[in-house]
User: Fold this.
Amino acid sequence: MPKNRLEAFADGIFAIAATLLTLNLAVSEGHPLGQELLTIWPQYAAYAISFVTIGIIWINHHAMLQRLVSVDHAILVLNLLLLLTIGVLPFSTALMAEYLNASHGQNLAAVVYGGSFLLMSLAFFAIQRHLLLAKPHLLQDHLTPEVRQAVLRRNATGLLPYAVATVSGIVSPFLTLAICALVGVFYALPRTRFDVQHQRDA
Amino acid sequence: MPKNRLEAFADGIFAIAATLLTLNLAVSEGHPLGQELLTIWPQYAAYAISFVTIGIIWINHHAMLQRLVSVDHAILVLNLLLLLTIGVLPFSTALMAEYLNASHGQNLAAVVYGGSFLLMSLAFFAIQRHLLLAKPHLLQDHLTPEVRQAVLRRNATGLLPYAVATVSGIVSPFLTLAICALVGVFYALPRTRFDVQHQRDA
Amino acid sequence: MPKNRLEAFADGIFAIAATLLTLNLAVSEGHPLGQELLTIWPQYAAYAISFVTIGIIWINHHAMLQRLVSVDHAILVLNLLLLLTIGVLPFSTALMAEYLNASHGQNLAAVVYGGSFLLMSLAFFAIQRHLLLAKPHLLQDHLTPEVRQAVLRRNATGLLPYAVATVSGIVSPFLTLAICALVGVFYALPRTRFDVQHQRDA
Amino acid sequence: MPKNRLEAFADGIFAIAATLLTLNLAVSEGHPLGQELLTIWPQYAAYAISFVTIGIIWINHHAMLQRLVSVDHAILVLNLLLLLTIGVLPFSTALMAEYLNASHGQNLAAVVYGGSFLLMSLAFFAIQRHLLLAKPHLLQDHLTPEVRQAVLRRNATGLLPYAVATVSGIVSPFLTLAICALVGVFYALPRTRFDVQHQRDA
Assistant:
């Protein structure tokens, strides 16, 4: 299958999952609106963090596909599993927003929230690993084994913050939220010249 | 009509239907969250199975369109009917998730769930049959009558598991779910060299 | 603006509006499932008719754009108005499904349902008219004034059934539904050789 | 990253956010349908204004990208922030529709509604400014510094009406709605020859 069809389907799911997050933004009736808009701040935080995270994974997904010449059955299946984890994010985001200020269940909700990001990262890592180690013949020519190892190592490092965020939920859901937000902020920072060169090689 | 526009519309509906499945994932308030997250396991199972099934039909849809040079009115209409059956899946999935553990209606829900997959497969078979038997002039050159017969036979075989899953709902909704899951797992398995050759010919 | 960007946005809205119709399919709790699945037949009918109608207008929208070489500001604005009417269809469809069997309001719901299709057709006619009469320089070369008149006349004729369906709602909502369904069936019928020739010219 | 992938993702989010607005259209039961359909007119107004506004920003987004040759990390991040503000619009639109005729909270809802449009315009202005001032090497050749200044000035002017609409909410939510509607109508007006020339230069 030519990879552009894969891109179209994946782009669709990334865009829809990100936009469906908006359905989690809602006020309840019966309270003064001003107070209610302040009370639901976990909704805004969870919305913004999840939206940016989906955006980041979308950008990385493109970088990954750009290294490919074409796709085969195993890649399609692994990609489908990744998209399945993307589809879960509106659910885990709603959970986090609903329970962050609740009197019970907030720690579990945070673990599920961090865990859904970890799951997504693991699915991403699985495709990346499969491409770089098992399917070098489908990659662009200029990817030397050294570059491939470097890309994979960077990917593996990316799993760490989400693993920490998941476990942190046991201590405090706010910690989970903060770590997930920091990943987004870190990624959004201007790239140094080193990064850019690094990225170009990969 | 050039087939790329058909692809864009179909890709959109496949991607949206798959992502809308996420709206079926939800916890009810009033129970401890931990217990609630365990109780709703039919939601996860139905979500994952339906997501993967839509993914599989999307992959097959592409394989089908790749054999085509262009599309005509009859193909557009048959394709619209296929997409209509795809749009039903979030509904039948919600039904399955809601009734799997209920004290009544679970068998009927399973029949509807399996039946919605069967309906989708029948619509797919109808297009495939139309293309291969009635519109050979729209197909790529290298498709000999023998290859076309083989593709169609493989498609017809694909109807069987969903027919069995539908009828199984009368006995047990869990059986329906298991069969639908197995179809997904079977499809996700690595292809043998024989399959790949087979697929290339088709 | 090159017309392919317009197509991507329009395709997205057509596909999403069609798939969102699925959210109107739902059973209420508290009744035996079998009885409930029979009771909600207006939901199925309204879903299928609206889905197919959106599909038809999507196909016609493509035919319209294929005649164009590029798009300008007025076309973008008129197209946006058409898409706005498409976005209303999930609402009017829900209304029709909910009130068809109700003891009051069913006639008004049918008028709104038929009226939303009429509105969409009028918006479509407005673009078509603008393109064919005011912007001949943006059209493909081979469209003679005679062919353009013929296309426009066919379009105007297409308004009639929806006007009748809207007014029929006053008499019976079932009549409205039947007329809208018939338009779909008529369109799905195999084209005669005459139609095909006609279409090729246009 | 080639800009066509950015376009596909952005088009998806624009189209989904616009179509999700339809979920805000709903009648409550328990009232005569005719009266209810009149009562919910703020829903129609908010739907139409938000839909057209998203359409306008989509058109401007394309104009912006057409000036670009390729995109870099900073543009991707700024674009993601713009899309995040687009995803908020179904929420602020629902708020406006729900509170416009309410006995309390209507002014705050209008400030939030106008504010969400202002936020979106600010995010748009931020990308535009970044492109035109910081990344001239990514722009098409023919954009002289004078033209770039003119584009930016026009963009800054576009912020004004939404700032006024936001503040007006304190006085009257109807004023906010009217200003947002006027922006849409103004944009939809036929372009003069001067505008067209102006636009071609930019």
Notes: Chain B has a mean pLDDT of 89. The two ends of chain B are 23 Å apart (CA to CA).
